[in-house]
Each structure stands twice: as C-alpha cells, then as structure tokens.
Amino acid sequence: VYADKDSASKYVADRIANLIATKQVKGERAILGLATGSTPKGVYKELVRLHKDEGLSFANVVTFNLDEYYPMHPIEDQSYVSFMKANLFDHIDVVKSNIHIPDGTLSLEAIEAFCQSYEQKIKDFGGLDLQLLGIGRSGHIGFNEPGSDHRSMTRLVSLDEITRLDAVDDFKGYDKVPTQAITMGIKTIIEAKQVILMALTQRKAQIMHRAIYGEVSKEVPATFLQKLTHVEYILDNQAAELLK
Ligand code: F6R
C-alpha cells in the first residue's frame, strides 16, 4: 500500500524498467502484458520519463494489450490503440511490429481465429513476463466480467452494466458505449510469470476488499488471482481503505 497514486505508479514503473533492463543485459526480449484505463496512466507517464531522461530503451520490448472494445476502429478516440499511443507508444522507442492489441475491426466470423492466433503469438514469445492489471468495479480483470471461467482464453465477451456505466464519460452517453469487447482470458492472465494488479482511489476500495478477502469465485473474477504466488497488489491508501 502506497501513500498516493504517484508513489504506487513509480514503484510499478521501476519494476517494469528493471525487467526490461535485466532482459536487455541478457540479450533477451521483455514480453509485457499491458492495461489501459485511468489506473496505469501514471505508470506510463513515468516510463516515458525514464525513456526521455534516463535512457531506458524499449527496443527489446514486445507488448500484448489485454483488451479492446468491439466493434472499435483504431482511429477512434476511445480505442485502446489511441489510448496506448497517446499515453505510451508514441513517446518511446518500441518497435511498431512488436505491439499487439486485439483488433476491434474484425468481422464476427473472423474473431475466433484471431483470438487463437493472439494466444499463439504470446506462446511463441515464450509467454508474458509481466502482466499489468487494473480492476473494474464489477471485479473484472481485463474484460473478464463476472461469470468468467478461470480456464478462459482470449475471446469476445459482453460487458457488464457497471463497466458500461463507468465508460459513459469516455463515450459521451450510455447508448454509445460498446456492449462487447475482445479480452485475454483469465487463463492467459494467470499464466504470466508475474502479475501486478493496481488499484487506485476510493472508488476501488469496495471491490479490492472482495478481490482480496472474498471467496474465490466467478462472481468476482479478480479473486482467481488469490491462488497465485506470483501476484502483487499495488494500492494507494484510498483503495486500501477497507483492508485495514
Ligand atoms: C483495461 C482493462 C480494465 C481496466 C479496469 C479499470 O485494459 O482491462 O480491466 O483495468 O476497467 O479501469 P480504470 O483504471 O479506468 O478504473
């Protein structure tokens, strides 16, 4: 638990930077699973600073984003492609062909094959070295909403009502929020070699209490992380309010 969002974000950015640097020394690639949303913004800001001011290179980094709305065109303001470019990719030296984000433009028939190839690509790179997660007020990780199975893989899902309500400001109206998304599965996430779940602000206090102390169940998909030995929960004081 960190005093505020800046110190929590700095800790996570340093963890990621150390992983990248350790891999670089060995001549290896760092395979990162990345999240969008308000939570990781401070992490990305600090990574950009480390790149600009302290010479951190992303030349050996491969990224896989957790999810994308469906349908969604990459050039839309609300797309996770736009988010990642604005907050991270446009400001660092990551190689464009090393960036992977679920494709929100596919036809319905093409989605299953895409999802299988997304999983295969992660495997081909030797698996995710580190998966960064936020948590939704529904208890989702990625867009694995309540009801998601712990064996689930990358797939098309329906968004929970709480999740859609939380996206109203971004889309300027409930009716404009997509009802579906493509997300990595719970299995995809928990197979990462390290998992860091971040939760910031008082809005996340209630769900963090359930995620950490609640019974492990599909009702709160984040509870599946309780079983892992390689997970860290990084919270600010406000998100940890009910844990004390
Ligand atoms: C985003 C994602 C989601 C968010 C979650 C929290 O790629 O997978 O699980 O992490 O909805 O969103 P924020 O951080 O905006 O509260």
Automatic annotation (TrEMBL):
Gene3D superfamilies documented for this protein: 3.40.50.1360
Keyword Hydrolase included in the entry's annotation: yes
InterPro entries assigned: Glc/Gal-6P_isomerase, GlcN6P_deaminase-like, Glucosamine6P_isomerase, NagB/RpiA_transferase-like
Top-level taxon of the source organism: Bacteria
EC numbers for this chain: 3.5.99.6
Gene Ontology BP, a term: N-acetylglucosamine catabolic process
Protein name as annotated: Glucosamine-6-phosphate deaminase
Organism in which the protein naturally occurs: Myroides pelagicus
Lineage: Bacteria, Pseudomonadati, Bacteroidota, Flavobacteriia, Flavobacteriales
Gene designation: nagB
